[in-house]
Amino acid sequence: MDLFDSNAAERANLPRNMIENSMFEEEPDVVDLAKDSSTFPAFPTLDPDEVAYEPRSSRLLVRGLGENDMDDDEEDCESSARLLGMSFMNRSSSNRSNSSPYARQSSPRSCSRPSTRTMVACLLVLVLVASLIMVMYLLPGCTFTKAGCPKPNKTAPFEPVYPNSTSGEPFPWAELRLPRSIRPLGYDLTLTPDLDNMTFTGRTVIEMSVLHSTKRIVLHAANINIIKATFKLGDGKADDVHVLEYKPHQQIAIKMKEELKAGQQCVLTFDYSANLSHTYDGFYNSSYTDKDGNKRVLAATQFEPLSARKAFPCFDEPSFKATFLIKINRKPNYMTLSNMPQAKTTTLSNSLMQDEFEKTNVNMSTYLVAFIVANFTRVNSTDPGTMVSVYSVPEKKEQTRFALDTASKLLTFYNKFFEIEYPLKKLDLVAIPDFLAGAMENWGLITFRETTLLLGNNSSSLEKQVVASVIAHELAHQWFGNLVTMSWWNDLWLNEGFATYMEFMSLQEILPSLDTGNLFLSVRFRAMDKDALNSSHPVSTEVNTPEQVEEMFDSVSYEKGASILLMLNASLPKEFKKGIIQYLKTFRGLNTETEDLWNSLTQVSTTRQNISEMMNSWTSQKGFPLVNVSRKGDQVTLSQEPFLLTSDNTTKKSRLWTIPITYVNDSCSLAPECSQMFTLKSKSENLKVPESVKWLKLNYKSTGFYVVDYGNDGWNALIEALSTNISVLTPEDRASLIHNIFALSRLGRVPFEQVLHLLNSMSNETETSPVREALLQLNSVHGLLDKRQESGLVARMKTYILTHFGSLMNNQSWGEEQSLSKQELRSALVSTACTLNEESCVANATSLFKQYSDSNFTITIPGDLQQAVFTVAAQSDDGWKSLLNLYTTTTYDAEKRKMLKGLASTQDPRRIAWILKAGLNGDIIQTQELPLIINTVCNGFAGYLFAWDFIQVNWDRLIDKFPLGSFAIQSIIKSTTSQFSTQAHLDQVQAFFSSLKQRGSQMRSVREALETIRLNKRWMESNLQAFGKWL
Ligand SMILES: [Zn+2]
After folding, report:
1. What is the pLDDT of residue 159?
2. Which of 289, 311, 443, 626 is most solvent-facing, going by the fewest CB within 10 Å?
3. 779 C-alpha to ligand 1 centroid (Å)
4. Which residues neighbour ligand 1 (ion) by CB within 5 Å?
C-alpha cells in the first residue's frame, strides 16, 4: 500500500504503544526451526491446535485473555516447558514450530553459588527432571500441547475461560490470532452487489485441510449477516451448522460434534448479506459526478490489512494463503474487475449477468483479493506475456497514457531485475474516484487514487514523479508482498520497506529524468526525525490488536525500512541484488520473517559476512545511533550512542548498532571512490587518518541511517571549509550537515548559534536538497514561534530567511522550467516566500492568478508554481470564491488537490470552519481529503486552534471514517498537535486523548504527539533567548 500523503515531506508519520522494545535487546533469538523449511513455513507439521501463532521476533507469551484461556492440559505443558527451560526447547527444536508460545520463556533459575548439599539436591532434582523429560519427550506425538502431551493428573482442574459469543454460548477461542489447526486451500466466492440499495449478498465456499486434530473451526468475519452455513467432510453430504460469533475479535466459529482428524479435507459454505461499507475499507461504495452532472456509483474493495473479513468469511491473516475463484453478479450496465482475467460471462435468470474470473494460479493472502463493479473505460498494451491495462472513469480516459507507459516499462524492468517473471496473465491499474490510501497492490488489480495514477497533458514533471513513484512502489509489491509475503504484520517492513526502496531504485534506472534522488534523501531525514522519538518502535515489532496492525503503516515500516536497505546496498553492493533474488526465489509463494531475508543475503555473501548480525541491530531495536567524532592528530575516535531526544529508564540501557560508516576528507571528497569504509561495532573505536587531513565528513551522501556530531573543532573545520568553497562536499552531504546540525540542536548538543554559523557558511548555496532542507528546518522553527505568538521573534525569523535566501528567491523565473530538480527548488523557495508574505512573491503570484482567471482558466500555470499561486489567490475574497468554483468543476485531480490546499490555507476563520466541515461531510469535498485539509489548516496561524477544536468535537465521526491507528488518523493527530509547545497545550492534549479510553488513548501516535509537544516546549524554552540574540 502506498500512503500517499506520506510521500515526500508530507509523509504521515507516527508511532504507538505496546510491549516495550528494549526487551528485544537482551536476548538473541532462540534457535529458529521453521525458517529453513522451504515447504510451508507458516504451517509447521506439529503446530498444535491450541497455540496461536507468535512471531519469532517477540519474546513474550501474549494471549488474548492471559493464562486463563489455556486448557488444563496446556497449562500443564507450559509448566513442563518452564521446567525444561530454553536449552531443552532448542534441543527439541526439530519438532517444534516457531509458533510455540513457550519458545521464549526464560531459563529456570539455577542454583547459584551452591553449597555441596544444595548441589547434590539440585543434581537429584535435575536427574529427576531429566528422566521425566525423557519419558515425556519420547512419548509419540508429545509436543507439550493439549494435543500432544500425556494426560496429567487432574488434582486441580483448570477451567479454560472462553468469551461469550453473540448468542450467549461460549465461543471456543480466546486469541486474536486464529488457531493453526485448519488451513484453507481454496475459496469460491460469488458476490451480488446491489448498487441501488448499497447492499450485497454473497456465497463463500471454503475448501480446507485439517492440519491437527480439532473440534472447532475458527475464522474471521465482520459486519456480515450469515444466513446459512453448511459443513461437508470429505465426500460426505453437506449439513447445516450453527455459527458462533465473537464480535470483539471479528471471529466466527463452528464447533464440531466429531473431532476432525489431521489430513482430512472439508468444505464450509456460507450464505450471507451485508451493507456495502460507507468507509474506505472492505467492500465499499464510492461515487462521482460524471460530465453531465449525474451521480454515478461504483463499488470497490480495500482489504489491507484486516478488511477482507468484511466482504467474505475467511482466514484473514497473511500466512493463510489460498486460491480464489471469484464470480460477480451485476446489472448489464456495469462491468467488473478482479485479480484474474475474466473467464466467462453468463446471463442469469434474474436479468443479472454473472462474470466469472479465472481461478488464481497462485496462492494468495486474503488482503490481496480485490474486485470492482463500475463503469470504467480502459487503455491497454500487451507487454511480452502480460496484458497491462489502465482503467478510469470515462471522462478521464485521456489521462491514463503516462501510467500505462510507465507501468509497462516498470514491469519489464522488474521481470529482469528480480529474474522472476510476473506470474499473472494481466495487470490492471485502476483509478478509483474515492480512495483513501495512495494505492493498493492487490495482485493483478492495483487500485489507485485518481491523483496518483492520472496525468493531464500539461502535467509537470513533479506530478509525473508522484505517479511514477506510486506505480513503481505498487509494482514492486507484486514480488515483495504478493509473491513473498510477511508471515504476520510485525514484519510489514518486508513489504513496505522494500517497495519503498525499489520505488526509488527502479526510477533512478528507468526514468532518471524524474530525479527521485532528492526525494529519497528527504524521506530518509524525515524517517530519522520520527525514529529519534522515544515513542518510535523497532522496524520489526510485535503487534496483536487491529489498532496495532493499522499503526504499522507508518514511516518506520516504509521509510526507515527503505533507508536501512539503501545502507545495506551501499555497503554490500555485490551481495545485495544477488541476495534479494535468492530470497525471492527461495520463498516464492510462501511467507517469511525478517531473519529469512538476512539469511538469504548471508548465503550469497562472498566474504561470508554475517549480515544477520549487522542488520538485526537495525531492525530489532528502535532508534538509530549518534556517531561522535573526536580527533587528536592522526587518531580519530568514533563512538556511538543512541540518538534519543527523550531518555527515560527504558532507554538508558546501552544499545549498539553495527554501523557501516563511510567517510571522506579534504583531499578527496566528491567522487564515490573517495568514500572509505569503517565498520563500527563496539561503543568506541579508533581510526587513523593522515595528520595532514583538515576535516572529515562522515556518512558519504547520507546513505547511512545515523547522525554525526563532529565536536566543536570538527564542526568549525567543516564550516570554515564550506565558507571558502561550498563545492568541497556533494549537495547530499551539505544537506545532511544541515539536517544533522538541527537534530543536534534539538538534542541540546550543539548551540543554535552553531546552526546559524553553518547556514551562514552556505550562503551561496543554490542546490535543491540543501536549500530545501534548510528551508524546511527554518520554516519549522518559524511555525513553532508563530504558534507561540512570539511575534517579535517571528518577524526576526522571517527577516533571517528572506535575507538568507532572498536573492535566490528573486532569481527564480515564473515561466515554464524544464529541469525537475530546478522545479523542486523553485517550488520550495516560492512557497516559503509567499507564505512569509514577501512582497514580490505575492505580487507575482497574484498577477499570475489574474492572468489565469482572465483567460477563463485556459492558460497554464507551471505545475511547480500552482500551489503557491492558488495559496496566494485564496487569501482574497474574490480569489477564494473563484478557486472554490474552479475546484468544483475541474476534472484534473492533481490540480484539484492543489486548489483544495489553497482553499484550506485561507486565514478567514469562517472559511476555515466551513472547509473542515465540508471535508468531514464529504459532499462538495471528498472525505478522503480531510487529512490534507486539516494539515493545511494547521500550518496557518488562523486555523491551528480551530483544527484542534474540530478534531475533539468530531472525534467519533473521524474514527468512524478512518480506523483507529490508520495512517489517516496518525496524520490528523500529528497535524493538529505537532506545533504546540506550551504546558497548557500539553495538558489539553493529554486530557483529551486520555478521556478517549478505548476510542484511541492507546495509540502510538498519541504518545508521539505528547512527546513532541514536550520536546518543542523544551527546545523553545531553552532557545528563546538565543533566537533573540542570534537572529
Ligand atoms: Zn506499499
Report:
1. 58
2. 289
3. 30
4. 1, 496, 499
